[in-house]
Amino acid sequence: MENKGISQAVIGRLPRYFRYLGELKDQGIERVSSQELSDIMKVTASQIRQDFNNFGGFGQQGYGYKVEYLYGEIGKILGLDQTHNLIIIGAGNLGQALANYMNFERRGFLFRGIFDNNPALYGRRIRDMEVLPMKELSSFVRENAIDIAVLTIPKNCAVEVAEELVKEGIRGIWNFAHVDLNVPPDVQVENVHLSDSLMKLTYNINRYETHYDA
């Protein structure tokens, strides 16, 4: 499917559609209208139809969408019909928390290993995986067909580590380090800045209070 002209805003909504449709499916609901999805997601019904039309549309006018079918199709668009081998680089608190997140496997993300440069952590077991030294990173990525790396390391070493990963053929980086990574166009990077999300929350708190105090 050709997706080059699809905006990041649309792509950003796809995981939400997938999540809510999964909940409907688990509840045994077989069919849903764009208006019903709108009520659940707080996105306009028109926007939902426009989003789905980017991928050819999935419903019939006056009939709505088959929940299980739509859930499966969005999963395919997101690449969740395939498995992805994933490693975590950085075995600190955040790295360990992500490693212990059990939902990865449900979505096809297979946790294969965790790395750190702190000798005190070597051999510690996290989710039945031993923490490995960074010197083993390159060979591990090659030998285990790793396609996604999660960076939970300080920004002063993230750039160098990313360059090493790119050389070994990594396809995607989930970047929690507070630094922009300069990678080739065929390597996808998703930056996660937790403080940005928190600041967005405080902005909305302040905006709400200002609105209702006026």
From TrEMBL:
It is found in: Cytoplasm. Residues 16-55 bind DNA. Keywords: Cytoplasm, DNA-binding, NAD, Repressor, Transcription, Transcription regulation. InterPro entries: CoA-bd, NAD(P)-bd_dom_sf, Rex_actinobacterial-type, Rex_DNA-bd_C_dom, Tscrpt_rep_Rex, WH-like_DNA-bd_sf, WH_DNA-bd_sf. The keyword Nucleotide-binding does not apply. Its main location: cytoplasm. The keyword Protein biosynthesis does not apply. NAD(+) binds at residues 90-95. Residues 79-180 form the CoA-binding domain. Modulates transcription in response to changes in cellular NADH/NAD(+) redox state. HAMAP family: Rex. Homodimer. NCBIfam families: PRK05472.1-3 (NF003989), PRK05472.1-4 (NF003990), PRK05472.2-2 (NF003993), PRK05472.2-3 (NF003994), PRK05472.2-4 (NF003995), PRK05472.2-5 (NF003996). Belongs to the transcriptional regulatory Rex family. This is Redox-sensing transcriptional repressor Rex.
